Give the backbone structure.
Amino acid sequence: MALKLVIFSCLLALAYGSAVPAAIAAAPVVAAAPVAARLEEFDPLPQYRFGYDVADSLTGDYKSQQEERNGDLVQGSYSVVDPDGTRRVVDYAADSINGFNAVVRKEPLVAAAPAVVAEPAVVPARIAAAPVAAAVATMPPLL
């Protein structure tokens, strides 16, 4: 019974607390003072150039990027070493007329060594045949 009384009291307090007094409801709304817009300078010909290289032999993380912008033309390239042992290189360009274009190529990390083919050893026929004949002679007869 005490729990019902506490719940009823809370609901009653909530009902009285949510009512807006007439004096506040009838008060005129005052507009906030206009905030002066901060004008930022517009660069009609933005230019930048940056690049970085990462070579971490502990983790095997090798990558690099270079990029240059002159107005609406952005050109650059990046490379990353893939897990298959090749380096993926992406050359890209972007402008307002052609959009973004990229050319991707894969390069081996090390030059391939010339393949060495081992020639089979030449064994004289009389030496190779002797153990086979001896093995046949010592086999027990089949019943």
About this structure: The chain has a mean pLDDT of 77. The CA atoms of residues 67 and 95 lie 13 Å apart.
